[in-house]
Amino acid sequence: MTSVLTIENLHQTFEKGTINENHVLRGIDLTMNAGDFITIIGGNGAGKSTLLNSIAGTIPTEQGKITLDGKDITRLSVTKRSKDISRVFQDPRMGTAVRLTVEENLALAYKRGQVRGFATGVKAKNRAFFQEKLASLNLGLENRLSAEIGLLSGGQRQAITLLMATLQQPKLILLDEHTAALDPKTSLTVMALTDQLIRSQQLTAFMVTHDMEDAIRYGNRLIMLHQGKIVVDIAGEQKQHLTVPELMEMFHQNSGAELKDDQLLLRS
Ligand SMILES: Nc1ncnc2c1ncn2[C@@H]1O[C@H](COP(=O)(O)OP(=O)(O)OP(=O)(O)O)[C@@H](O)[C@H]1O
Ligand SMILES: [Mg+2]
């Protein structure tokens, strides 16, 4: 099995040396294999977003080593990493350019990491390709190519953001509670779409969620973070047959803490 991402002894501290010093990641070790779809769960402030930010490079690494596809990226800039790592955030407004049309947004994502030519606008060949990709989402968006993104609903925007994030076959995709701001029905649609895109392109993915059922349902591996440490890491068959009470018990055993009901969605 080839490893796509390795994290060795990662530590992150905010406001170091001040009274507010906060040691958020406390020695994370993790190896992700090609095609791993890992769900991450943990209470508020456990360090989930900080972990994703460290991988993407938006937070410089304080201590530790991050390797992507065999290359040390620990000190690489966000821009350089973004050629291989794509992200989808909670806020549907984050992933797209509001004043540009659907096809202009897709064209930008399509050009990511390529040398830009002189041509502006969207080529006919690309338009047909975008239309086909949009049609595969089954949301009728193939008829909205020239609509301004800002006019679409949050769910439609999040679906397009997902498409943009996967258009160039990234080495790694990071999803940070990307359905949390959507209504329950739209959230289900976008989650199903996420699963479909990740599986069909055999992407290596990291998905933060607050929903324990979703964390169990999706992906092939599940990680629980507690106070900046991985306290549960289960995969394959064991994860497939896991129940929410079992997961809570594992968390309790390994962390010595109780899960608070208001921090995680325990039921669907
Ligand atoms: N850029 C930052 N500067 C200072 N403190 C930060 C920064 N980012 C996160 N923190 C702090 O680090 C801790 C972990 O935050 P993080 O966002 O990683 O948690 P999380 O597990 O994603 O939580 P949530 O479920 O609420 O999204 C929190 O105490 C937070 O206030
Ligand atoms: Mg977070």
UniProtKB/TrEMBL annotation:
Keywords: ATP-binding, Cell membrane, Membrane, Nucleotide-binding, Transport. It comes from the Bacteria. Residues 5-252 form the ABC transporter domain. It is found in: Cell membrane. GO terms for molecular function: ATP binding; ATP hydrolysis activity. Its main location: membrane. The keyword Glycosyltransferase does not apply. It is a peripheral membrane protein. GO terms for cellular component: plasma membrane. Pfam families: ABC_tran. PANTHER family: NITRATE ABC TRANSPORTER ATP-BINDING PROTEIN, TAURINE IMPORT ATP-BINDING PROTEIN-RELATED. This is ABC transporter, ATP-binding protein.
